[in-house]
Write a structure and sequence with these properties.
CHAP domain-containing protein, endopeptidase fold (from Nostoc punctiforme), 339 residues, alpha+beta, five-stranded antiparallel β-sheet
Length: 339
């Protein structure tokens, strides 16, 4: 089994932001690769640590489809706030690359460069707007776009880093392969071994239960275990029911993922998931969760009819259809099926 094109859970927090991984996602197909973001080559005039953080900021933005100007804004912001260093301290409770304050997320989230980078782009856990939430940000001067997110006491300070940010971005682009430029990450090597030991007592029974959901969906029949219709439109509920629970206990997959992050049960190091694991994705605004069945397959709901031509339902598909197929979901990590 190959690895899924993955980006560890990234949540960008700035002076104001929010995390996103909730429960109305869709998914499906291909080989799977479990990969971490590429650290890239050293950048001129930056040390190894600063270079790695700059590469992460750009890779996260590219996974989110952020245009080049937004990537430059993020680089300039992190240069001003932390000198591109993942600080464990700052003014009052500010920490991390972007010196995001406590309402943006947990200490662990704000000091995890991919997560803090995603927060900068998409907003903080407390509902703070990220760069992509700012109306007209692409038409603003760089320092104004940065300030709209950071709400700094020094609103013009980002301007002095603009030339550097563009130079760093050009150098990063020059040092990445085309696949890395498009995907924002890389895979060191294929994982060709067996699946890790399963998290469920009977993986075959889990597969059979997932297949029963998929078969009922294909036939237009109600949930075979709980008798409900429309259940496939809520990914967190479907994942719970595949594991034998009527409800996930969360309003969304995002909230469920955040609970795993807070509890320390989230796995974001790029390691392959065991059968039975919950796979989380960071598409906005709700995120997505699917159940890993082993051998590169997941059971997932699907409501993106325009992209796939499907009517919506439950499907068992290869993992890469979620990340590299019609859905193009950014992978966050996996967690055990704790309910």
């Amino acid at each position: 089994m190959k690895k899924l094109i993955v980006f560890p859970m990234v949540v960008v927090i700035t002076a104001a932001g929010a995390l996103g991984v909730a429960g109305a996602g869709e998914g499906g197909g291909g080989d799977s690769q479990w990969c971490a973001p590429s650290e890239g080559a050293p950048i001129t005039d930056l040390d190894e640590d600063q270079s790695s953080n700059a590469h992460t900021i750009v890779a996260v933005g590219e996974q989110l489809g952020v245009p080049d100007f937004g990537l430059a804004v993020a680089l300039a912001t992190a240069a001003q706030e932390s000198m591109l260093r993942n600080l464990d301290h700052g003014d009052r409770d500010s920490v991390g690359l972007f010196q995001q304050r406590a309402p943006w997320g947990t200490f662990e989230e704000r000091t995890h460069p991919p997560t803090s980078s995603r927060y900068f782009y998409t907003g903080g856990a407390g509902g703070q707007p990220g760069l992509l939430d700012i109306p007209g940000w692409q038409d603003m001067p760089l320092t104004e776009a940065a300030q709209a997110v950071q709400v700094s006491a020094y609103p013009d300070a980002y301007a002095k880093w603009e030339d550097d940010a563009w130079a760093w971005l050009a150098e990063i682009r020059g040092g990445l392969t085309p696949d890395q430029q498009l995907g924002g990450g890389s895979c060191d090597s294929e994982w060709d071994g067996e699946d890790p030991p399963p998290l469920v007592a009977d993986p075959a029974a889990l597969m059979a239960r997932a297949q029963a959901f998929a078969d009922a969906s294909a036939a237009g029949l109600p949930d075979p275990f709980y008798g409900a219709l429309g259940y496939y439109r809520m990914c967190a509920r479907l994942a719970a029911r595949v594991h034998g629970h009527a409800h996930s206990g969360f309003i969304s997959a995002l909230e469920q993922w955040r609970s795993h992050l807070a509890a320390g049960t989230a796995v974001t190091d790029g390691s392959p998931p065991p059968p039975g694991a919950l796979l989380f994705y960071t598409n906005q605004p709700w995120g997505h969760v699917a159940v890993y069945l082993g051998d590169g397959l997941v059971v997932s709901n699907d409501v993106l009819d325009a992209q796939t031509g499907r009517r919506g339902g439950v499907y068992i598909v290869p993992t890469t259809e979620l990340t590299a197929g019609a859905w193009n979901l950014p992978y966050a990590g996996w967690a055990p099926p704790i309910y």
